[in-house]
Amino acid sequence: GTSDPYVKFKLNGKTLYKSKVVYKNLNPVWDETVVLPVQTLDQKLWIKVYDRDLTSSDFMGSAFVALTELELNRTTEQVLKLEDPNSLEDDMGVIVLNLRIAAGLLLSCLILLNERCERWAHFTLGHLAVSFKCTIFLHLFIASKTSLNLGHVCVFMRSVRLSDALRKNQLWNGVVTITLLEGKNIPGGGLAEIFILLKLGNQRYKSKTLCKSANPQWREQFDFHYFSDRKDMLDIEVWRKDNKKHEELLGTCQVDITALPMKQTNCLELPLEKHPGSLLMLVAVAPCTGVSISDLCVCPLGDPSERQQIAQRYCIKNSFRDIRDVGFLQVKVLKAVDLLAADFAGKSDPFCVLELGNDSLQTHTVYKNLNPEWNKVFTFPIKDIHDVLEVTVFDEDGDKPPDFLGKVAIPLLSIRNGKQSCYTLKNKDLERASKGVIYLELDVLFNPVKASIRTFKPREKRFTEENRKFSKKILSRNVDRVKKITMAIWNTIQFLRSCFLWESTLKSMIAFVVFVVTVWSVELYMVPLALLVLFAYNFTLVTTGKVNNTQDAQASKELMGLDEDEDEDDKESEKKGLIDRIHMVQEIIIAVQSILEEIASFGERIKNTFNWTVPFLSVLACLVLAAATVILYFIPLRYIVLIWGINKFTKKLRNPYAIDNNELLDFLSRVPSDVQ
């Protein structure tokens, strides 16, 4: 129900000026001043309005002004009807502007229009029909030279402050939590695999695909951003996938989020429209705080009293109040230096996109600049302290998708509070350095108890992304990673075998004595104690510098690093029809590629836990092992197993809508693999 409008001014087919984009606003105000040169008066000034998307721009209509109709040195109000010959709409709206044409290089007093144009437009984009109302405010001043000599062009941006529209319409003020429980009597569910698509605005989630069943149970949770000023409906689609991977829509249903009460969990059984069957789910709408965009002079943590208030919210005594609110992140996006030139003129129109999990905010665009200064402050609520902040710099490219300029990824646990840092921009895969650097200042405040509890719960699911594709590079890398882990296990087996075969008398004698003493004296509580000793041993190696955590990362980079020649080989292979030749087995290859990655990542994460790669997680593991040692020392094993079994058997009775999870796997999912 919104648009991202901008305006282009053209003479003789050339774009002389493009206004900035006002994002997600029905009443955009550009507040710009532009001076355009005119060689002769027998020309038409074209005004074209576009709606900008990240992938493309939608044409919203155009109009023109014949310069011969304008009186010299007199401000003229023009009411221009927007037209689009390719649109079925008769009324594309009008645009109202004031123009003033002046002889020579006279820059008369600027009288800016505060009139507005209200318009209704309707576009059909693929299967998506969007109707929206747009109000446009245009401020334009034209000074021309009547002689044939080309004068000059002056464009004045009166303010680089983030507009209230851009600031407001990025900020969500609530979270919609959907717990997808189960389906009942799904048509055709017993013949094919079932999955669910959930859509709220431009946010999309895809559930896991379940085996053939007419009553599938998902037990999954999804979080959507909620904008109280929008009337978005939650669209739910039920799909099935057969053995040939053909997908078929089985049914749909909708939920009006605005009709649900706040701060309350609603249990809904939704019948499918025009089809039998229903879905059972929990829907909760809760307010959200901590999201903001501001200028440097009014940053939240810059005010001592506000900083104290935020720090108090995450102090230890508030550890069990609002468990999901783990912390607070403030990012100052200051400037970038020496960016890649993306335009033919040797310049770029850079803007930044900041992403933390599914949360995303964006700066304004600085036009025609390779050293932009944004000087904006962004704040995010932290839901998982193990998330990674990604800052991506793009070049705005008008009607075309934005060009990628560089990216940095910063784990929250690696942030040094209050220190301005310079980060080298990297390519999309973060494997090689790109051109340019970006200056950021980061602050993170979090509650360690809440962060620890969150570590043993499932990670937040990401919005639906593109399907993974087969890559010879990734497959080769994953094979090498699995081979490395396999060799480590094989070498251990060979060592034990050599002890049994007495290949070395001294080694076998020592191993025999250790075995007898261990078996004779071992108690169950000594198992976690032994793991604690291993943690302590590796900690001493890391602190003394005998082992460097970056060694494995460097080895992983060697696996990842391929020359440009290999990339060219991949491209040539694609040209020769490699993808066509393996099309029939592509999904199997992708599955093998993914399984190899999971195996390799699992082994590397266990190793990196003991290697203190992430000290927070290693300390947390030590605390759990210490508690396990004490419990096993004082409590007999049979009681522990009994308590565990009773908890498992009664969990469904105590909470019918509980989501099953494995705490150990959830913990390991936070430990980075070597590639990460």
UniProtKB/TrEMBL annotation:
<comment type="similarity">
    <text>Belongs to the MCTP family.</text>
</comment>
<feature type="transmembrane region" description="Helical">
    <location>
        <begin position="616"/>
        <end position="644"/>
    </location>
</feature>
<dbReference type="GO" id="GO:0005509">
    <property type="term" value="F:calcium ion binding"/>
</dbReference>
<keyword id="KW-0479">Metal-binding</keyword>
<feature type="domain" description="C2">
    <location>
        <begin position="1"/>
        <end position="80"/>
    </location>
</feature>
<dbReference type="Pfam" id="PF08372">
    <property type="entry name" value="PRT_C"/>
</dbReference>
<feature type="transmembrane region" description="Helical">
    <location>
        <begin position="510"/>
        <end position="537"/>
    </location>
</feature>
<keyword id="KW-0472">Membrane</keyword>
<dbReference type="InterPro" id="IPR013583">
    <property type="entry name" value="MCTP_C"/>
</dbReference>
<dbReference type="InterPro" id="IPR000008">
    <property type="entry name" value="C2_dom"/>
</dbReference>
<keyword id="KW-1133">Transmembrane helix</keyword>
<feature type="transmembrane region" description="Helical">
    <location>
        <begin position="92"/>
        <end position="113"/>
    </location>
</feature>
<feature type="domain" description="C2">
    <location>
        <begin position="304"/>
        <end position="425"/>
    </location>
</feature>
<protein>
    <recommendedName>
        <fullName>Multiple C2 and transmembrane domain-containing protein 2</fullName>
    </recommendedName>
</protein>
<dbReference type="InterPro" id="IPR035892">
    <property type="entry name" value="C2_domain_sf"/>
</dbReference>
<keyword id="KW-0677">Repeat</keyword>
<dbReference type="GO" id="GO:0046928">
    <property type="term" value="P:regulation of neurotransmitter secretion"/>
</dbReference>
<keyword id="KW-0812">Transmembrane</keyword>
<comment type="function">
    <text>Might play a role in the development of cardiac outflow tract.</text>
</comment>
<dbReference type="Pfam" id="PF00168">
    <property type="entry name" value="C2"/>
</dbReference>
<feature type="domain" description="C2">
    <location>
        <begin position="158"/>
        <end position="270"/>
    </location>
</feature>
<keyword id="KW-0217">Developmental protein</keyword>
<keyword id="KW-0106">Calcium</keyword>
<dbReference type="GO" id="GO:0030672">
    <property type="term" value="C:synaptic vesicle membrane"/>
</dbReference>
